[in-house]
Model the fold of this input.
Amino acid sequence: MKVVDELDLRGKRVFVRVDFNVPLEDDGHGGQRITDDARIRASLPTIRLASERGAKVIVAAHLGRPKGKPDPRQSLAPAATRLAALLGRPVTLAPDCVGPEVEAAVAHMAPGDVLLLENLRFHAEEEKNDPAFARGLAKLADAWVNDAFGAAHRAHASTAGMAPLVAERASGLLMRDEVKHLGRLLAGAERPFVAILGGSKVSDKIGVVEQLLSRVDALLVGGAMAYTFLVAKGVPVGGSRVESDKVDLARRTLAAAEARGVRVLLPVDHVAARKPEAGAETTICGPGIADGWLGVDIGPATREAYATEIAAARTVLWNGPMGIFEIPAYAEGTLAVARALAGASRATTVVGGGDSVAAIGVAGVADRITHVSTGGGASLEFLEGKTLPGIAALEA
Ligand code: ADP
Ligand code: MG
Done:
């Protein structure tokens, strides 16, 4: 896989696919405001490098789900403004992402200029990976640089289809880092290797669990996922969220782990509440949960046991919160895991998953984590060992 800094960029038209799919809110004046610009910041090194090396930088991204037609509420205009502020240089927003007007805008670019194309998903052809649309994008550029790790699990026109239609291909710097850090978890991770998995569903994470069973020394389970595993072991979980059709799968997974000598740690105590809501009556209980209560977080003894495992590890992967962390009263278990990762200074620590990354932010420890992945679905699919189309397109 070639990296952008290996290309001769001077004077070239370089199409940089980024992940600018940032959360927006109404600004109260009929416009939209970015509430978290982490994804824009994450793409700065690649855009800056291309611009400084004299490329004509054509930045392209999707935002939201505009259903294949223009929608001013999902315009990339706020992203253009934010990108310009962060780069400290002007960024022009093109009126569209393909067509004569865009081609004219590109023809007028000088080396170093940055042009942001309008939302790729204003065209249904983007997600359909339509060949004519891919040709329209490819026509704009001499090189295709993919820095959109968060969209790499999609075979869309801009993330895969256009790649063979341009003269050169390279990964961006963010994409390079994602592949390096996540790739190491699948091959050559330092042991002990501990994975902490949580979140809402066994079904979302089972592919990762299966892939990791042959690599990790211990698997720590939390979140709603844990109750399905506890049911598989015959532990009562009260009214906790359980995927009843996944209990068998959980049982088989526990057996597979045992056969491989992987220790699986399940919560030994819980924060249980009357309702999954803020302000509900709570209790600490364990190992089981009585009827009339439901598990909303891992309990203090579990937090300590998990922190001890994390402290002894050389590699730690964390995906999925330990409880309903959006409610501050049920966030302690998740924050304890975040702090334990931050404190594991001898370990390589990797965090993936939208909600887990948000929790790292809430805990304020992002700068003490080796790698915080920008890909939610993409990191999961990568860790399942799948070939991501946006990465395969770089290797072709
Ligand atoms: P990530 O985005 O990090 O991959 P998930 O999307 O899988 O994580 O899971 C996050 C969601 O899981 C959160 O909305 C959280 O409230 C929910 N969750 C965690 N623990 C519980 C629980 N005990 N009961 C219900 N929902 C839970
Ligand atoms: Mg999530």
Remarks:
- The pocket of magnesium ion (ligand 2) is lined by residues 353-355 (CB under 6 Å).
- The first strand starts at residue 13 and ends at 17.
- The chain is about 35% helix and 15% strand.
